[in-house]
Amino acid sequence: MKLSFDHLVHFSHHPKEAMTQLKEHGIHVVQGGQHEKWGTYNTLAYFGLPYIEWLGMKDSSLAQAVSDNELIKKFVRDYSKGSHFGTFAVRTDNMSELKERLQSYGYKTTGPVAGSRRTENGQLLEWSMLFVQETTTDLEMPFFIQWGQDDDERLQSLQPFLKHDEQNLQFDALYLVTSNMDQLSMKWSELFQIQADSPDFSPSLQGRCQTLHLDGVKLILCEPTEGGVAAGFYETFGAGPFLASFSNASHRHSFSLQGGCFSLHP
After folding, report:
1. Helix/strand/coil for 29
2. pLDDT tens digits for 95-128?
3. What residues in the chain have per-residue pLDDT under 70?
4. pTM for the full predicted model
5. Range of 118's domain?
6. 39 touches 60 (CB < 8 A)
7. How many Cα neighbours within 13 Å face the side chain of 203?
8. What pLDDT does residue 197 have?
9. How many domains is the chain partitioned into structurally?
10. What is the model's pLDDT at position 136?
11. Contact, 255 vs 27, CB < 8 A?
């Protein structure tokens, strides 16, 4: 069984506005489609297989009635906080084996839950999702996804969406703020069977940070010790992803957009 980073979900009040704003920074965002049974829609930016999804509200009454999808339930709960990075997904090629592993570690799971959406050209995309109940730390477990296509087929179909102003941008790191860094690092490195670097202090983030080497994108757990970007996000939104980092940019720059922070570097 293989586990890889799949995508970051940006809870957004205005997904289509993000398209225009990100274009100014050389990031190409495309129309996604509608999740007809959940009352939501999205726009998307791809960096190979890893991508960012700006998840927006299409029909609030329909979204609020969803009972079997923990992602949509979290989106509805957090909507009043404003736009911000909400959670992320880990991709698997064997959902049944993953579910057995999670349960063997004592986790309660929900799903798999079938998902689908229609693209702007009418194509039906399908996937399944598995959710995990996490009650021992402030940072929720990511959700897990398995696509109806294998990685090679999906990557081939995504080629037209990978043009970011002649930059070959790569999503290289996702930063997550938590007050339980040591506990989370130990649990996630064992559960995902990935390497964890030694913790270190980050002057720029004003906190202790530790890198987990998940396939596709590094996960960097940050425990703030003073004021700063990580502490500010934690105070406003709680534990979760707060900074997305990209390599192969034409020049180094950072910006904030709809409650999330972006860092681009050559």
Report:
1. coil
2. 999 999 999 999 999 999 988 877 767 777 889 9
3. 120, 165-166
4. 0.95
5. 3-264
6. yes
7. 0
8. 98
9. 1
10. 85
11. no
Q: Are 7 and 89 in contact (CB under 8 A)?
A: yes
What is the bridge-based pairing of β-strands 30-35 and 108-119? antiparallel
In tens, the pLDDT along 240-253 reads 999 999 999 988 99
For residues 2 and 87, give the distance between their C-alpha atoms in angstroms, rounded to a whole number: 20
3-class DSSP state of 5:
strand
| Number of helical (H) and strand (E) elements in the chain, helices listed first | 7, 15
CATH code for the domain in which residue 198 is found? 3.10.180.10
First to last CA, the chain: 33
> What's the confidence (pLDDT) of residue 143?
97
How far is Cα 230 from Cα 224, in angstroms, rounded to an integer? 6
- Is the CB of residue 28 less than 8 Å from the CB of residue 21? no
Residue 130's closest CA among 153, 107, 150, 151? 107
- For the chain, the residue count is 266
- The two tokens of residue 41 are 């829609």
112: preceding bond cis by omega (within 30 degrees): yes
